[in-house]
Design brief:
ABC transporter involved in vitamin B12 uptake, BtuC; 2 strands; two-stranded antiparallel ribbon; mainly alpha
């Protein structure tokens, strides 16, 4: 029913579209923050934007969203500028500087908001909504602004694709190749700040960092290619925005922003477990298979060594293999199980109670040793 309402209900359609746009923008630009191990930047910028919102209101006396977001952008950008200079001119690590600015600016923002709430003017009501977002207040003009901002971010990412890629994966090579690494870092950081500020009205200061990081973390589990990662992250972000809007609209007094964050966080957690190749479950399966392969190769290699050293046509007893397996502490039962598997594969053969390696088995070990030597 709610899915149908997206097309018929103006408010629901507006909120869903705005949330989807925010998710797509955040996922795309957040991929670079994750790859550059700057996960805390979203938290720092979103919290640092709060005093900018308060100051913008005090200066203009208006809750016009454009002025408030401009103040948030300036405040967030100043915080990152200070962080970069602290890191550059001192021994303070990047994450420590980010954490410090996060606390200082957020504390300042709360002080300013508290002061504003005490002003005898009803116009200040609603500013606290920026803490957790107020997606239900999105208007058509807000969606247009988000679309323009998102299009601009995607355009710049496409234009500087090669440069941003080098900056993310190998900044040292990027610098020695003659690229203006400081300017590129400034542009990329500015784009991240813009994306974060754009989402404050929807998700809020407290939760916006999850929208920057979670889609990219989820997408990283599914691919090793940057272009695919950016696309998947944008899709995950958009999907979480739509689903979060639908869930919040179906339950009374359930805020949209937090629900969106819960959805995208769930997608990230699920991806961490089930994504092929990098997921925890797949990795455990792969490790288990690798262990089985290793056990098989060890037993086959010992058969090969025994054959080369004594060349008994009658074969060798399991106890002979057990002695040669001392450093791996294989049990007789384990060796026997591996021998049976080798027999099925045609790599070993059983003669009465003795075992020997086949020509096929010898060829496989020699190929394996040859590959290791290369």
């Amino acid at each position: 029913m709610d899915l149908i309402n997206i097309f018929s209900d103006y408010t629901l359609r507006t909120v869903a579209l705005g949330s989807a746009l925010l998710g797509a923008i955040s996922g795309a630009i957040g991929s670079y923050a994750v790859l550059r191990k700057q996960g805390l930047i979203g938290d720092a910028v979103s919290h640092a934007a709060l005093p900018g919102i308060g100051v913008a209101f005090l200066l203009t006396g208006s809750k016009n969203i454009e002025w408030l977001l401009l103040g948030a952008f300036i405040s967030g950008w100043i915080a990152i500028y200070i962080v970069n200079n602290i890191t550059k001119h001192s021994r303070t690590k990047y994450d420590s500087a980010l954490g410090t600015m996060l606390s200082v600016f957020f504390g300042l923002g709360l002080v300013i908001l508290t002061y504003i709430q005490k002003i005898p003017d009803s116009n200040q009501a609603g500013l606290e909504g920026f803490l957790f977002g107020q997606a239900s207040t999105l208007l058509k003009r807000d969606i247009i602004v988000m679309a323009i901002v998102g299009g601009g971010i995607i355009f710049i990412i496409t234009l500087l694709w090669k440069e941003f890629k080098l900056l993310s994966f190998d900044p040292e090579f990027c610098q020695v190749s003659g690229f203006p690494i400081d300017k590129l870092d400034l542009i990329l950081t500015t784009l991240i700040v813009i994306a974060i500020v754009t989402g404050l009205q929807t998700v809020g200061v407290v939760l916006m960092s999850a929208m920057i990081i979670a889609p990219a973390v989820a997408a990283r589990q599914w691919t090793d290619k940057l272009s695919i990662m950016v696309i998947i992250a944008a899709i995950f972000g958009a999907i979480s925005g739509i689903i979060g809007t639908l869930i919040s609209s179906s339950t009374r007094n359930l805020p949209t922003g937090p629900v969106i964050v819960v959805i995208i966080s769930s997608i990230a957690i699920i991806s961490l477990f089930i994504a092929p190749g990098r997921g925890i479950i797949w990795r455990k399966i792969r490790d288990k298979n690798n262990k089985k392969q290793l056990n098989r190769n060890i037993v086959l290699n010992n058969l090969y060594n025994l054959n080369k050293s004594s060349n008994k046509s009658s074969g060798y007893k399991i106890e002979d293999l057990s002695i040669s397996q001392h450093e791996y502490s294989f049990s007789i039962k384990t060796i026997e199980e591996e021998l049976r598997k080798l027999e099925v594969l045609g790599l070993a053969e059983k003669n009465n109670n003795n075992w020997n390696i086949t020509r096929k088995g010898m060829n496989e070990i020699e190929e394996l040793r040859g590959g290791l030597e290369e």
